[in-house]
Amino acid sequence: MKCLVYLLIVGMTASFSARAQPRPPAISSPEVHPDHSITFRYFSKKAGRVTLSGEFLKAPVAMTRDTAGVWSVTVPPVKPDIYPYSFRVDSVQIADPSNTYIFANERFKRSIVDVPGDRPLVHSLRNVPHGKISYRYYKSGTLGTTRPLLVYTPPGFDPNGKTRYPVLYLIHGGSDTEETWTKVGRAHLIADNLIAEKKAKPMIIVMPYGNVRPAPMPDFTKDMVNDIVPFIESSYPVLKESRGRAVAGFSVGGGQTLNIGLTHPDKFAYVCSYAPFTATDEFRKNFTDWSPDAGRLNKQLKLFTISVGTEDFLFEPVKQNIAMFQEKKLPVKSYIVPGGHTWMNCKQYLATTLQEIFQ
Amino acid sequence: MKCLVYLLIVGMTASFSARAQPRPPAISSPEVHPDHSITFRYFSKKAGRVTLSGEFLKAPVAMTRDTAGVWSVTVPPVKPDIYPYSFRVDSVQIADPSNTYIFANERFKRSIVDVPGDRPLVHSLRNVPHGKISYRYYKSGTLGTTRPLLVYTPPGFDPNGKTRYPVLYLIHGGSDTEETWTKVGRAHLIADNLIAEKKAKPMIIVMPYGNVRPAPMPDFTKDMVNDIVPFIESSYPVLKESRGRAVAGFSVGGGQTLNIGLTHPDKFAYVCSYAPFTATDEFRKNFTDWSPDAGRLNKQLKLFTISVGTEDFLFEPVKQNIAMFQEKKLPVKSYIVPGGHTWMNCKQYLATTLQEIFQ
User: Which one is predicted more confidently, B344 or B106?
Assistant: First the structure.
């Protein structure tokens, strides 16, 4: 009876906002089991074939339909982490309609499944003091528009206190958005946890929107240096010298990190690049036939890291970039780890960086 | 040439995160034209039929395919507003894969299209001072979990200053999330604009996660009164008496608003309910055979409003509720306006409320 009332309410609720279209029954997906196996479900009476793709799978797996039209598959236990996945319904790739957790991205729609560990992971929501993520706007003179950015402030942050905080500028991947570092990368929870353990210094993390299309992708460097940094430094109590600024980013954002950081070592003492995509005009312009003053850069850069996974499809070009920077006698520290071009890896790169910067 | 480079970069970028699946070409959707007509596009070489549904349409319209596999349709000019829409690809209803703006909801995935006005609308991003939205967590003793909520603080907000702010507690609809009021309702921009025009008082707006399933939907009232309000009042410089507290909500959240507000008139002097869904155990328990002290409630409630659209599918039950409250001699003010059970209407209800509370 209670269940019936519930289904009635859920059914009515679901019908509120889209009455023109019949709504599927309430189903639970994904369902993570105690042994870390996961059941995925999708409702369709019309589909002919439904498959599951996920970054915990080597290849898509077929889902099977019951008589009520619920397609499902249970995958064997997976290593605790946060994984993107999607369904393919006949010809259509979709996010899981029953899952609120969407991969923030401009070009594909995938869902994410959080498989908790037996012990809390570095990105888990733990019982520690929590910082805040603020959604803000700034005016970009460079780009002539008002643009969004997210700002993480640490637990106990006091905008009027005497503490001046260091700032990490953290850039997403190529078709991601300013929300990807929190929604998929859980940067705020990683920071909360490492700060609580005193493994990271309390810091502000600024997550801008790094895409500046339309084409060809112009430099984001000017917007960062001339607009974002001044906006932050006029809005927050922060350290205004290079030892108080770090820049990091993933993929296209990793390439932007190298461009921004290494052309402005007077402004950023910490440059941490994750699986950088560097096949851009800006990178070629900056680093082909580049003759840096290595001695000076070695003094300016307190930390310069490049991280990449051995299964990353950019592994070879990233290795070549590391070699190029080594040839120029720059103090580059490389982290070569297992894994691919994924946000599972990306979270680990960030967790490492947070423990190394501003120390 | 430039275009080629761009397409190459976009193509490579798009392939980064989901290499296992071939990615569609870069297409622009939705494209809002200067005359407010809109072109929607979707790429598929395999689909047999693609239709567009949207709250600016009375019925779905078919999209047509070009030789490259791009399906499209252009709809005639629509009234400037923000509208939910979706595609149906054969049997599958999906959000627009090219559009980052997703309707935050637990059960369906739709996109939203923002049709700007010739003059800025109440929810437009204007050149005015902007407040901040903070993503936070609080511990719910009632529910035994850590739960998310969003907090809007107005421009110039000073957590340590002498100003004590009034607080609006604003609840989403039945299958929405704590993000729906900002992502779809643009509550923060409506507040920014009305505060800039001095039509609304600077205030804090708290947007909790109102769903407390699993079933049957238990009362959210205790969580609000015993956990959320104390969390806010210990974290922000706020007025801690009833004239400094308002509660409002839409649909299921509108029903929660009536339950919370009218059973705690000592705590909330402003109760504003939008198209409330009231067919719940809690509502029946509270208001069947209810004999309120009308004289006292008239003194306690500085504002009690119920808003609904004449095309809302809840119009009849909402009218009955208004009549019931009138019979009990409560000071209910009703706003009966055109429109349906939509977030287009909901934004207007909020804009009205913001100008009436805390005055």
Answer: B344
Residues of B in contact with A192 (CB under 8 A): none
| Residue B22 domain-assigned (yes or no) | no
Residue B193 and residue B161 in one domain: yes
Query: Does pLDDT of B86 surpass 60?
Result: yes
Closest CA to A334 of A312, B49, A299, B261: A312
Residue-wise over B128-149: b if at least 16 C-beta within 10 A, else e?
bebbbbbbbbbebebeeeebeb
**A269 Cα distance to chain centroid:** 22
Amino acid identity at B334 = S
What are A153's two structure tokens? 């402030």
Q: Which of A207, A217, A145 is nearest to A182 (CA)?
A: A207
Q: A76, A250, A65, A86: which is closest to A173 by C-alpha? A: A250
Residues A239 and A90 placed together within one structural domain of the fold: no
Q: Are B255 and B173 in a shared domain? A: yes
**A215: chain B residues, CB-CB within 8 Å:** 2-3, 5-7, 9-10
CB-based contact A76:A37 (threshold 8 Å): yes
ipTM: 0.76
Domain match, A108 and A187 both = no
Q: Helix, strand, or coil here: A208? A: strand
* Contact: A94, B98; criterion CB under 8 Å: no
Mean pLDDT value of segment B316-338: 96
Domain of A329? 132-356
Give the nearest partner residue to A134 out of B94, B132, B343, using CB atoms: B132
Identify the CATH number of the domain in which residue B138 sits.
3.40.50.1820
Are B106 and B237 contained in the same domain?
no
Report pLDDT digits (tens) over A27-83. 899 999 999 999 999 999 999 999 999 999 999 999 999 999 999 999 999 999 999
Query: How many residues in chain B?
Result: 359
AA identity, residue A332:
V
| DSSP H helices in A217-303 | 221-222, 229-235, 252-263, 281-287, 294-300
Closest CB to B2 among A98, A108, A215:
A215
pLDDT at B54: 97
With beta carbons less than 8 A apart as the criterion, state whether B83 and B344 touch.
Answer: yes
